[in-house]
């Protein structure tokens, strides 16, 4: 075992300085022969051939207006390859340090696909400019992050890397690389990482680091650098490289990984500019080379670092050098931040978009920290304790009456069946604010509002409507099971908790006949498990036979006082769509409405599983990726507050507008009065209509935000809305009533 391991170790050591891959184009006979020889020599080579997917990406990019099916895209890719044998298309790239052989598009097509997501952040013209730039990086701790970031963006055509150091375990707190690279020169590790993401980039390595004998070579060989990035630790090299950069008019960028400090020195535009902004002009720079100890270096280090601008934590750490730590600390978060900042600065310098010199700070702790400033904060959701068993029992005792003649007791299984059917009913925002208790042969229905709505549930009318839908399901299921049912509804108001008592019978007692629930639409019970909210956007309106609408209207009218108005013609639907879209926007722009929005949405499977209520935004909303992204953006009130301040937010109308544009008809259930009792009864009418629609294979999506907001506006008062919204709501409400031919204003 020992001999085998040592043999493998020696073999790997021979490979430690290799950072350039080999290219094999199989339409060239010499390359084909070389690859054959390699495969014979290295039978353990790992082959990665995903060329088909790369070609498909290329085809899509070259045809952005075409929406390919999977099969069409595969065929288009095959046509693109044409008569060239598959294995000869593109290039095979071999990475000797990992014995990986990868099949890639050749350079032009590879670069086109790999940089496609840069488009317009980097224009095609800018892409050409950047491809001709040369950038050098000295020091590969922060420099590693900068170099790799620039390579990912393809900020240059050539990258020169210099560092004399090897990777040690303590480097891994800030350098992203695998542990298999321990003891590998940093330049080799970085060059390999770059070649593995883009083998066509030219990378030149200086594993001995920078010194007096090679500085000119580093800056000039093969063409003068366009930008020098200095991230080295050595004071002498830090001074030397600037002196040389100034001599050759090369701009210098440095990121210090403390407070996001970035230095930019435009020696290309300011030939007389002092190095390091003049911070070291008072020092004898000829002595820097001889500075070995910290005592000798500190007089130079502090001015360069900026003694007054260093973070307190960094200052304290410097006092610990050679006491409890060996050098100054760096964190991966700071190094990564510095990599992004520096890459951005270099790109803009290369594109002639940034011209100034100076020291800049991107201090995360200052930008994101406790400053004592008043922040815009979201109001917390008002969560009330769950209704306790004791509270329910006390209410039952208060309303308990003697059993009626013929009233029957139910088995536990029967009660569970009834309640299960009832809880499949719709409720506002799927809040499911019902609690049930079976006691002494009666089933009691309670209202439980754990979340107190801020806008859309005035006097609990919306919640009580949901209890009406649940009651309808319970009645239908009772009849299906062969029982008769008597519903004793309590007088309802915004303080109601006990809502209804249900009594069950085998037969109808003569003296209770007028009070029993009639069997007017019992056939709807079978559709209870199939009723659902369909939030998918229709692409076009599909005609529905008028007889089906007549049927749904007749179902609504089976409930005393209820009616249903329908809008079917396209112009009216478009007009209504505008009203609904604008009212949805107004709802979210209102702070209370936004609070309700936060209270009803569930954004993760964990939230859905835990709460078992609310709206599953990810799974049940038919949103495009961009719409979903926008939807997620509006979760935070500070975002909406900005939209309010700017007088913006029209984009919030897009989703509801699209929903109505694909709708065949919109129905409105009406009741005589704005009262809790009528909302309860209206809920029963709503459920009958919804189950009837399910029976007729008609999809239903409630669009009640507008009516609920109108209710709050009228009955709670205009004062709850800001001035800029009052006029708009009034106008929209008038349009709404006109469209539905409502002579008596809603509410």
Structure description:
- The structure is a single chain.
- The strands form 5 sheets. The protein has a 7-stranded mixed β-sheet with strand order 7-6-5-8-9-10-11, sandwiched between helices.
- It is elongated and about 110 Å long.
- The mean pLDDT is 86.
- β3 and β4 (100-104) form a beta hairpin.
- The longest helix has 20 residues, at 461-480.
- The protein starts with a helix and ends in an 8-residue tail after the last helix.
- 43% of the residues lie in helices and 12% in strands.
- It has 28 helices and 19 strands.
- The chain has 747 residues and is α/β, with parallel strands linked by helices.
Rg (C-alpha, Å): 36 Å
Tell me about the biggest sheet? Answer: 7 strands, mixed
Q: Helix share of residues?
A: 40-55%
Span of the ends, CA to CA: 87 Å
Structural shape: elongated
Strand fraction: 5-15%
Q: Kindly report the spatial arrangement of strands forming the biggest sheet.
A: 7-6-5-8-9-10-11
The class by helix and strand makeup works out as alpha/beta
Give the low-pLDDT segments.
none
Could you tell me the number of beta strands?
19
What's the pLDDT, averaged over the residues?
86
């Amino acid at each position: 075992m020992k001999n085998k391991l040592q043999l493998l170790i020696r073999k790997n050591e021979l490979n430690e300085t290799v950072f350039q891959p080999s290219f094999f184009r199989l339409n060239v006979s010499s390359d084909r022969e070389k690859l054959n020889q390699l495969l014979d020599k290295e039978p353990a080579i790992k082959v990665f051939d995903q060329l088909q997917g790369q070609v498909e990406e290329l085809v899509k990019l070259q045809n952005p207006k075409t929406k390919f099916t999977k099969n069409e895209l595969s065929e288009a890719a095959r046509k693109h390859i044409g008569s060239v044998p598959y294995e000869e298309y593109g290039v095979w790239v071999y990475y000797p340090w990992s014995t990986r052989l990868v099949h890639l598009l050749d350079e032009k097509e590879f670069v086109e696909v790999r940089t496609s997501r840069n488009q317009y952040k980097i224009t095609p013209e800018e892409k050409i400019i950047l491809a001709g730039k040369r950038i050098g990086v000295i020091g590969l701790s922060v420099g590693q992050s900068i170099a790799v970031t620039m390579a990912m963006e393809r900020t240059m055509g050539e990258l020169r890397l210099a560092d004399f150091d090897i990777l040690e375990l303590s480097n891994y707190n800030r350098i992203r690389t695998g542990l298999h690279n321990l003891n590998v020169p940093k330049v080799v590790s970085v060059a390999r990482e770059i070649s593995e993401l883009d083998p066509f980039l030219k990378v030149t390595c200086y594993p001995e680091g920078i010194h007096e004998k090679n500085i000119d070579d580093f800056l000039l060989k093969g063409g003068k650098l366009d930008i020098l990035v200095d991230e080295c630790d050595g004071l002498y090299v830090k001074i030397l490289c600037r002196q040389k950069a100034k001599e050759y008019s090369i701009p210098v960028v440095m990121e210090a990984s403390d407070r996001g400090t970035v230095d930019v020195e435009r020696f290309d535009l300011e030939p007389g500019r002092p190095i390091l902004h003049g911070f070291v002009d008072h020092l004898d720079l000829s002595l820097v080379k001889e500075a070995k100890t910290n005592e000798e270096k500190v007089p130079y280090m502090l001015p360069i670092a900026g003694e007054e601008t260093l973070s307190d934590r960094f200052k304290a750490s410097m006092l610990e050098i050679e006491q409890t730590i060996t050098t100054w600390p760096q964190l991966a978060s700071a190094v990564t931040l510095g990599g992004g900042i520096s890459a951005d600065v270099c790109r803009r310098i290369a594109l002639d978009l940034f011209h100034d010199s100076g020291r800049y700070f991107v201090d995360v702790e200052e930008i994101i920290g406790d400053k004592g400033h008043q922040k815009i904060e979201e109001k917390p959701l008002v969560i009330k304790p769950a209704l306790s068993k004791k509270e329910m029992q006390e209410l039952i005792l208060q309303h308990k009456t003697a059993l009626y003649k013929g009233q029957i007791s139910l088995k536990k299984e029967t009660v569970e069946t009834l309640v299960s059917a009832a809880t499949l009913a719709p409720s506002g925002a799927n809040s499911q604010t019902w609690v049930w208790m079976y006691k002494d042969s009666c089933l009691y229905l309670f209202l439980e509002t754990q979340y107190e709505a801020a806008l859309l549930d005035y006097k609990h009318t919306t919640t009580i409507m949901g209890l009406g839908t649940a009651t309808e399901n319970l009645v239908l299921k009772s009849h299906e099971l062969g029982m008769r049912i008597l519903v004793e509804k309590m007088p309802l108001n915004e303080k109601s908790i006990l809502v209804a008592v249900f009594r069950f019978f085998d037969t109808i007692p003569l003296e209770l006949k007028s009070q029993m629930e009639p069997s007017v639409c019992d056939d709807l019970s079978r559709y209870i498990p199939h009723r659902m909210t369909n939030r998918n956007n229709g692409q076009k309106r599909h005609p529905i036979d008028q007889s089906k609408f007549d049927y749904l209207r007749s179902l609504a009218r089976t409930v005393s006082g209820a009616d249903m108005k329908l809008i079917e013609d396209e112009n009216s639907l478009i007009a209504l769509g505008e009203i609904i879209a604008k009212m949805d926007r107004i709802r979210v722009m209102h702070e209370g409405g936004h609070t309700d929005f936060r209270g009803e949405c569930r954004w993760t499977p964990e939230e859905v599983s835990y709460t078992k209520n609310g709206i599953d935004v990810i799974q049940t909303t038919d949103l495009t990726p961009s719409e979903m992204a926008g939807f997620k953006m509006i979760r935070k009130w500070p975002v909406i507050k900005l939209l309010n301040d700017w007088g913006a937010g029209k984009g919030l109308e897009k989703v509801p507008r699209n929903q109505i544009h694909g709708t065949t008809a919109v129905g409105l259930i009406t009741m005589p009065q704005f009262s809790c009792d009528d909302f309860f009864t209206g809920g029963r009418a709503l459920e009958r209509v919804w189950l009837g629609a399910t029976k007729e294979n008609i999809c239903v999506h409630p669009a009640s935000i507008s009516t609920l907001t109108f209710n709050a506006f009228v009955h709670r008062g205009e004062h709850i809305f800001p001035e800029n919204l009052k006029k708009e709501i009034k106008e929209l409400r008038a349009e709404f009533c006109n469209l539905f031919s409502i002579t008596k204003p809603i509410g």
